[in-house]
Amino acid sequence: MAHLLILLAHDPTVQPALNELISHLGTAATDLYTAFLNDSIALARQVARANVTVVAQHGSALGERMDGRSAPAIITLPDMLPTTLAVAVAHALSTGPVVLFGNDLPHMPIWRLRDTLTHLEGGADVVIGPDERGGWYLIGLRAAHPALLRALPGCDDSPDDLCIAAANHGLRVTNIPAWYGLDNLADLEQLSLDLRTMPRDVAPHTRALLNGDTVQARVVGG
Predict the structure, then answer these.
(1) Helix locations, 46-155, DSSP H
(2) Tally of domains within the chain
(3) How far are the Cα atoms of 88, 159, 176, 181 from residue 131, in angstroms, in the given order?
(4) CA–CA separation, 41 and 206 (whole Å)
(5) Is the pLDDT of residue 112 over 70?
(6) Residue 5: CA atoms inside 13 Å, Cβ hemisphere, count?
(7) Which domain holds residue 182?
(8) Are 47 and 4 in contact (CB under 8 A)?
(9) C-beta separation of 125 from 166 below 8 A
(10) H or E element: which one contains 204?
(11) DSSP string across 145-192
């Protein structure tokens, strides 16, 4: 069975000043990132024959705020460093391919997940979803190759070393189209625009929060 690991890499309950968006929104960031997480879980649940797990850092309170009707299992790690994350990934890979993606992707098209698993089932060793700033928003791995686990990038790092490690060992890398995460106010404004043309069932928790007063006021007026 495939494993979809949702990484709580951007978590205002652990690092309240991690990025511009979290810093600007203040206490409202927790509600927003809870909405992101619940929508990301709902997105992953649409993938057939896949096990969904949330990976959180010790001390996170987001897990307690998940929608109880569909809350997946949670793996708690001491930190989100690549070496720590690699241990959890290797364990999951023992029973099937793994797809990693962040908790700030409530708007990601579902076919990105499905296509990633199709590529892995078709023989790709690594699947990279590059983000628009040179990092990554999704990584798929077919097996626990030691070189790949050693080169696993941090959540805000470039995947270049992972691609180089794959090439050095004759492993096949496939890229899927780029997408954007939600790190700053411009990203949030872009999301608000994009949601207007997306189906109503895309990111309902996030959509409802963005249409409310608290987050809108913080975005517009600070």
Answers:
(1) 82-93, 110-121, 146-150
(2) 1
(3) 23, 10, 10, 7
(4) 12
(5) yes
(6) 27
(7) 2-221
(8) yes
(9) yes
(10) helix 204-210
(11) -HHHHHTPPPTTS-SHHHHHHHHHTT--EEE---B----SHHHHHHHH
Residue 179: which of 117, 133, 119, 118 has the closest Cα?
133
Task: Tell me how long the chain is.
Answer: 222
42-93 pLDDT tens trace: 999 999 999 999 999 999 999 888 887 778 999 999 999 999 999 999 999 9
Q: Residue 158 sits in a domain of what CATH number?
A: 3.90.550.10
DSSP state of 109: -
User: Percent of the chain at pLDDT above 90?
Assistant: 78
Strands of the 50-57 sheet, one edge to the other: 73-77, 50-57, 2-7, 98-102, 136-141, 126-130, 173-175
Whole-number average pLDDT of the chain = 92
Residues 81 and 84: their CA atoms lie apart, in Å, by 5
| Residue labelled with tokens 């990693």 | 100
Q: Which two tokens stand for residue 138?
A: 């999704």
To which residue do tokens 């569909």 refer?
Answer: 70
Q: Give the CA distances from residue 187 to residues 21, 104, 182, 191, 204, in Å, rounded to whole numbers and listed in that order.
A: 9, 11, 5, 6, 17
Give the residue carrying structure tokens 């962040």.
102
Mean pLDDT computed over 180-209: 93
